[in-house]
Amino acid sequence: MTITVESTHMEHQQRKWTDYFTFCTDHKVIGIQYLVTSFAFYFIGGAFAEVLRTELATADPDFVTPAMYNQFMTLHGTIMIFLWIVPAGAAFANYLIPLMIGADDMAFPTLNAVAFWLTPPGGILLLLSFFVDGGAAQAGWTSYPPLSLISGVWGQEIWILSVLLVGTSSILGAINFVTTIFKMRIKDMDLHSMPLFCWSMLATSALILLSTPVLAAALVLLSFDLIAGTSFFNPTGGGDPVVYQHMFWFYSHPAVYIMILPFFGLISDVLPVHARKPIFGYRAIAYSSLAISFLGLIVWAHHMFTSGTPGWLRIFFMAATMLIAVPTGIKIFSWCATIWGGKINLNTAMCFGIGFIATFLMGGLTGVMLSSVPFDIHVHDTYFVVGHFHYVLFGGAAMGLFAGFYHWFPKMTGRMINEPLGKAHFILLFIGLNITFLPMHELGLLGMNRRIALYDIEFQPLNQLCTLGAYLLAVSTVPFVINVFLSLVKGEKAGRNPWRAFTLEWQTSSPPAIENFDEEPVLWAGPYDYGTDSEGVNSEENIEDMLAEVGANSK
Amino acid sequence: MQGSAIQQPQGTVPEQSGHHGGHEGHPDHRLFGIALFLVAESSIFLGLFTAYIIYKTIMPVWPPEGTPELELLLPGINTIILVSSSFVMHKGQTAIKKNDVSGLQLWFGITAVMGIIFLVGQMYEYFHLEMGLTTNLFASSFYALTGFHGLHVTFGLLLTLAVLWRSRKPGHYTSESFFGVEAAELYWHFVDVIWIILFILVYLL
Predict the structure, then answer these.
(1) Were both Cys, which of A103, A194, B26, B142 would link to A98 (CB 3.0–4.6 Å)?
(2) Among B123, B193, B187, B191, residue whose Cα is nearest residue B160
(3) Separation CA A175–CA A171 (nearest Å)
(4) Residue B180: which domain range?
(5) Residues of A in Cβ contact (< 8 Å) with B46
(6) Does residue B14 belong to any structural domain of this protein?
């Protein structure tokens, strides 16, 4: 009976596929638009990475010219940061926040659609810059002057315009997320009973609102230098390139948290569901996100230990940077404690969740090493740094992203994912990323510079290993893509709540109807109270009883 | 963004494409959203001001030798005009709270005139300064800061004119429904505060 009602409901109130190509204001459509767009750029940015790794397989520049290498290197970084991982966070936030807090849409639906539709033009512009006079930008994703002022004006100018468009999208999105979280929760849900993903998006949005505009200011001034002939950052005209570095990193250091915090939130929601245990340290995880945001804003100059930063200032930034290990450590230990002794369902989402903890931990530990001034000076601009941030952002953010993707795929599509293909994706990705990025630490310690197409022959064997790993990463996308299409067409019907989860999005149909909920959802327990009854006893029967109580357990 | 935010009179819900999920009609949400937008705007100016302070600190002579001295009289008068206009505009909001639409029109009209005088004054200053955008780092910073602020005044002026235009329609703004008035006022006060900081930083210090 329930199934019949639900299918009739879905027939009448689901979106048409064409809606996904329009200026639609439904947050779920916008979430999917962001997700598909970001994955399109994941494949493009990934293909660029394969070009780079193919070039680096040998010590000679025999695959692409050094100028082309610089262009692919710049666009690989830019695309992966601004057009893949940041929009991917926005995708989940758009899709999940209203559902998780029991709202029928975001606070500003029209603004939401505007924010999304700034992203594709930004990305397309960036790709078209390959074809302008002088080619695409070549100064790396940091675009440090004076290099960015001398390596092709139009490619660089388009790069600036593109980043400004995507940055504006990000700011408009952040305004919407914060307003929605503060103003649209159902009556019974206070801040301390909302899912941790919402907390992580609050922290992320605060960072976006405070830091992204500073990058915009830096880029506008850089644009003046490029086009109008001013010298804000050009030393030949009396300007100071280090001022650009300060402004750039005031955004771009927080940006690493803008990239990772949403996935911290996703993981905090995924792990307890598949371990069938309440989250350990809910408040500690929530507040540590805010602590990370605050500390993230005051540590930017650790990227500039070699830029003439005075010693006393280096000590401050070193200490503040090391301090970030505390809230991050709180999260790691809380996640470990959450799955410790749990009844773990080792499905694809959980595999990625556990993989996330392992690889992010590795990136975090090398981050603590890099925060130390003497060590940083030794390995600055070497492959050690490349290895570090790829563990954090690919090992951490991508693993978290895929954990979230596999977890909410049934909710978004109404179909279950193919588990064997999902696990093949995980295994290839996990092995591939370790083979690619682990040897980079050794290369860096040996002294191989980053951002170069040419290197000493002694580095070739380790580089070939990295390239092999990169090819494995490329192969890992095959089961992923097949899985998505196969499951969309032939996947088992998911039902409302296939994971027997407690957050509100699982109370509605899969995929949710246009209005999200038939009637206002009921907050029947904390988001992670898996099976704990009034006496704190944890059992599967308790979970079923609690789900049955609100009628949310229909499969 | 403000433009879209003030299009709806208070209490109405904009039509959404095929579902009833719109919440942009709720004035409380919209004012909160605008406050967040102004936080982001403040950060842009924070970036520009910080860059200016760093230049001022690290350069051996500031402004560099040969830079014409800035006159204080005109920008001083402009400052008085802009600061006063904030109070004038607030009288408009007070009027609409008493359902006095003609009062709103009067005070917002005066605010718009004061905004135009400010911009004309700034143009006059630009044309009579014997320096250009690329003269030196000080000149570049001066034009970037005051120009960017001028753009904000222009935008605030457009918001004020939009309120005046809409107030012609009977019942558009009432003592119960005046979100557009509040939004324009909040933005105008923001522009005003930024100018005070800018004036102290660039002209007085």
Answers:
(1) A103
(2) B187
(3) 6
(4) 42-204
(5) 213-214
(6) no
* Chain A residues with CB-CB distance to B24 below 8 A: 107-111
Contact A179 B32 (CB under 8 A): yes
Q: Which two tokens stand for residue A272?
A: 């307890």
Q: Residue for token digits 């006159």? A: B71
Q: Supply A554's token pair.
A: 């229909």
Comparing CA positions, the residue from A130, A181, A182, A178 lying closest to residue A154 is A130
CATH code, domain with B46: 1.20.120.80
Measured CA to CA, the distance from residue A536 to residue A530 in angstroms comes to 10
Per-residue pLDDT of chain A (555 residues; tens, 9 = 90+): 233 334 444 444 678 888 888 899 999 999 999 999 999 999 999 999 999 999 999 999 889 999 999 999 999 999 999 999 999 999 999 999 999 999 999 999 999 999 999 999 999 999 999 999 999 999 999 999 999 999 888 999 999 999 999 999 999 999 999 999 999 999 889 999 999 999 999 999 999 999 999 999 999 999 999 999 999 999 988 899 999 999 999 999 999 999 999 999 999 999 999 998 889 999 999 999 999 999 999 999 999 999 988 889 999 999 999 999 999 999 999 999 999 988 899 999 999 999 999 999 999 999 999 999 999 999 999 999 999 999 999 999 999 999 999 999 999 999 999 999 999 999 999 999 999 999 999 999 999 999 999 999 999 999 999 999 999 999 999 999 999 999 999 999 998 889 988 889 998 988 998 888 888 887 776 777 775 555 555 566 667 777 766 665 554
Residue B48 belongs to some domain of the structure: yes
**pLDDT, tens digit (0-9, with 9 covering 90-100), for B39-76:** 999 999 999 999 999 999 988 888 888 888 888 899 99
Residue of A nearest to B141 (CA): A232
Residues A496 and A554: beta-carbon distance below 8 Å: yes
Which residue is listed with tokens 């103003």?
A183
Residue with tokens 């067409």: A489
Which residues have a Cβ under 8 Å from the Cβ of A206 and sit 6 or more positions away?
A174, A178, A290, A293
Closest partner CB to B144 (pick from A171, A224, A237): A224
What is the DSSP-derived secondary structure letter of residue A98?
Answer: H
Place of tokens 């049934």: A410
Distance CA A242, CA A133 (A): 28
Q: How many domains does chain B have?
A: 1
CB contact under 8 A, A232 and B140: yes
Q: Alpha carbon A334 to chain centroid distance?
A: 20
Count CA atoms within 13 Å of residue A63 on its CB side: 16
The answer to whether A461 contacts chain B (CB < 8 Å) is: no
Can you give the C-alpha Rg of chain B in angstroms?
20
Give per-residue burial for A227-237: e unless 16+ CB within 10 Å, then b: eeebbbbbeee
Please report where in the chains the tokens 């795929």 appear, as a residue: A409
B33, A108: Cβ pair inside 8 Å? yes
Contact across the interface for A232 and B23, Cβ inside 8 Å: no
Calpha distance A438→A341 (Å, rounded): 30
CA distance A312 to A310: 6
Contacts of A481 (CB under 8 A, 6+ apart): none
A372 phi-psi bin (left φ>0, alpha ψ -120 to 50, beta other): beta
Radius of gyration, CA atoms only, chain A? 23
- Identify whether B157 is part of a domain: yes
B29 part of a folded domain: no
One-letter amino acid at A255 equals A
